[in-house]
Design a protein that fits this description.
CATH topology of the largest domain: Alpha-Beta Plaits
Distance between the termini: 84 Å
Number of domains: 2
Protein name: PucR family transcriptional regulator
Number of helices: 10
Helix content: 40-55%
CATH architecture of the largest domain: 2-Layer Sandwich
Structural class: alpha+beta
Organism: Cohnella rhizosphaerae
Largest sheet: 5 strands, mixed
Shape: elongated
Order of helices and strands: HEHEEEHHEHEEHEHEHHH
CATH class of the largest domain: Alpha Beta
Radius of gyration: 27 Å
Strand order of the largest sheet: 6-7-5-8-9
Number of strands: 9
CATH superfamily of the largest domain: Reverse transcriptase/Diguanylate cyclase domain
Length: 330
């Protein structure tokens, strides 16, 4: 905003108007949203602030010390949003895709290198868009190439279902990572119309993933698979989340043929069995071929019970608190 327009605004609202620049962390600390956008407002003890521009790490705001009506604030917010939209257009869409693909390439490289615990470096432009409590979805499409949606088309549809806070990150061919805000959990309704309780997070995630799968198939047809994980801190655990969701889809396609929505917490046994080397599995199947009494044989049942229960007991022993020895009184 130039000086002329600033002076005009001061005359219109009859009050002090200043342009300030602050970091996004300062904006959040003052009470603003984690993902500030042009037009966002923040009421202060004296006046209020209006976001006019958002950069990678900074926020430009108008600090107005004046008493404004609700309608005046909404009009100023609308003007700020319109100004931001007029400066963006298709260029920002292509820039967002470039940033997303750049992050997706890094995620894939980290997974290929086995660096599942790698944290996202701050050099990535999208680093400031990653906040605590984001829900990771992995979408794998099995459509023919000529029916593959573009990045812009897919992002537009996903925003209509999830929210404007979502991020779409391309990974491999016909594979996308989708990050949504955990506020979506509060919007999921049960079959009775009641809101999902806090302890029903996994049920809400299943509902969201199922709805996402249905929307994608209705929009473009063909088959696709959707995996969903619990909310994460992306900057710290996004690589691990992507690797886990990809493994979940592969296990689901292998062990649960016909299912298209997959959850990591439902494939624990499948993950264990999949870890057995192929020669060992083949030998076992050859030796057990024709034995219909395998799981009714007492010795087999005892072996399985010892294997699983012993492992569980060792886990409990590791997690048990260490108590000091008790001495009998003299």
């Amino acid at each position: 905003m130039n000086n002329t327009r600033l002076q005009q605004l001061q005359q219109m609202i009859v009050g002090s108007v200043e342009i300030d620049t602050m970091s996004k962390s300062e904006w959040v600390k003052a009470g603003g949203a984690k993902l500030p956008e042009s037009g966002d407002q923040l009421d202060l003890d004296q006046g209020f602030m209006l976001v006019t521009k958002v950069d990678n790490h900074q926020v430009q705001v108008l600090h107005m010390q004046a008493e404004l009506t609700l309608l005046e604030k909404e009009l100023l917010s609308w003007l700020a949003k319109q100004g931001s939209m007029s400066k963006s257009g298709s260029v920002s869409a292509s820039e967002m895709e470039r940033q997303a693909r750049k992050l997706g390439d890094w995620l894939q490289q980290s997974i290929d290198a086995g660096e599942w615990r790698a944290e996202i470096p701050e050099r990535f432009e999208l680093h400031h868009r990653l906040f605590d409590g984001m829900i990771p979805f992995l979408l794998m499409s099995e459509q023919a190439e000529n029916r593959e949606p573009s990045y812009v088309e897919l992002e537009k549809v996903l925003r209509s279902y999830l929210s404007d806070d979502m991020l779409l990150i391309p990974l491999r061919e016909r594979e996308w990572l989708i990050l949504g805000t955990d506020r979506l959990l509060a919007e999921v309704e049960t079959s009775d119309g009641d809101m999902i309780e806090r302890g029903e997070t996994k049920e809400a995630l299943v509902s969201l993933a199922t709805g996402l799968h249905q929307m994608i198939t209705e929009e473009w047809g063909g088959d696709c698979h959707v995996a969903v994980g619990e909310p994460i801190i992306p900057t710290e655990s996004l690589v691990y989340a992507v690797a886990t969701l990809r493994e979940t889809v592969n296990l689901g396609r292998k062990f649960h043929v016909g299912m298209h929505v997959h959850m990591p917490w439902l494939v624990h046994l499948e993950r264990l069995l999949s870890g057995i080397p192929e020669p060992v599995r083949s030998r076992f199947m050859d030796e057990m071929s024709g034995r219909q009494d395998l799981f009714t044989d007492p010795e087999t049942v005892l072996t399985l019970d010892a294997f699983f229960c012993d492992g569980l007991q060792r886990k409990r022993d590791r997690e048990a608190p260490v108590h000091p020895p008790q001495y009998a009184p003299l």
